[in-house]
Amino acid sequence: MIIKSNIPALNALNRLQKNNKNTASTLEKLSSGFRINKAADDAAGLSISEKMRAQIWGLDQAQRNIQDGISLIQTADGGLAEIQNPNLQRLRELAIQAANDTLTQEDRQSIQEEVEQIKKAIDEIADNTEFNGIKLLNVPDSGTHTYTTTTTTTVTTVTGYEPVPTVIDLSKATSITIFENTSAPFPTNEVTFSMNDLQFGQFWAATNNAPPLKNEHYIFSVDLSANTFTTRALQTASIVALNNITGVRLNGLSGYDVTEAWATDVVSFVGTPNDASHGPDKILGSDLSDTDTPSFGFDETADTLITVQFKARKAITSTTTTTTTTVTETLPDKSVKLQIGANTGDTFTVDLSDVRTSSLGLDSIVVDPRDKAVEALAKIDDAIQKVSSERSKFGAYQNALDHIHNNVSNYAVNLTAAESRIRDADMAKEIMEMTKNNILSQVATAMLVQANQTPRGVLQLLR
Questions:
Q1: Domain for residue 39, yes or no?
Q2: Which of 11, 67, 260, 273 is deepest in the core (most CB within 10 A)?
């Protein structure tokens, strides 16, 4: 019997601690109502939930924005309604009255006095109709809001070239074309790879109709840090690594005195050339003949490699920076934008109105003599039509915002339900877990007591 380490008691204590931890976690969920109280509870679920909450809260605010917008529109429509009836209707009635020849000049002058009072009332309504300090019915078409943008242009000009060729920066080229000629009289094989692809190495099998050599296999690659190109001929049981590359050409070169450049220097090679006249330097230049192939021996036992560089005269450039400030747009300052959604760009534009007498064409109407009263009648009809059109516009805005509000409300409800399924706790399940953990904790406590009693049996041996 061992009493130094009471293993049963340690096991019971370990289980008790785990049960207590699970009970504490369940109590936290029950007390908060959330399944996820910290990131450790569900890291992915928390991220998704927080993103949804941002949308939900944004939609809640958007609903309030829409309701404010509807209130603004209703305020504008109320002002227009007051201008239209009784003011414009009374003006029309007075113009019709003044157009009757049964009236004297004094009668028409009395009518003109009432006309002036009505015009003044229309202007007061237009000037004083506002929502939260925003004028709604006296916004002139000439009011503008301008802003500017600053454009910076950098121009690089080639002023000359360095006198001595230097190693070409391969990142300044777009692609490399490789020429391969296995044996005459077969045509030279040609393949082009982009510079981006060559950074990862590109496999290529040459076309060869001269048995038993079959098809040579190559891997082409570039090292942009060293500005080198490497051709590797692969040695296999059936293919000899001859490395029959006759030329390598850079394409799309910028910043140098040429746009194309052939390999100029052999940096290193691996393998044994057939003879001195067929060394690795035969890959240099634009001579693509078969006799200038840098062949290696048939007794090669491993891959053969040739690494080359390219040289050209580098361009000498000068840089000019020009900063230009221009007016990009002039917009009528006649509208308010409502943020009707939770994201950038979710806006609704409400165009405001100008229904002062000067805009309606009523500021100079007179009803004396009779022909002026007839002209005034036509202008009043046009004004009534304009005010009716503005009221129709605001009515359409309100209907549209009502529909948008319904849609945003439904969206928020559905998104809230989705977020709840991720974030909220299932109370019945958590209560069940708590009951289970409580029972297990009580049992573990009892077993811990029992385990602590076991070593006392050693005392019987001492009697």
A1: no
A2: 273
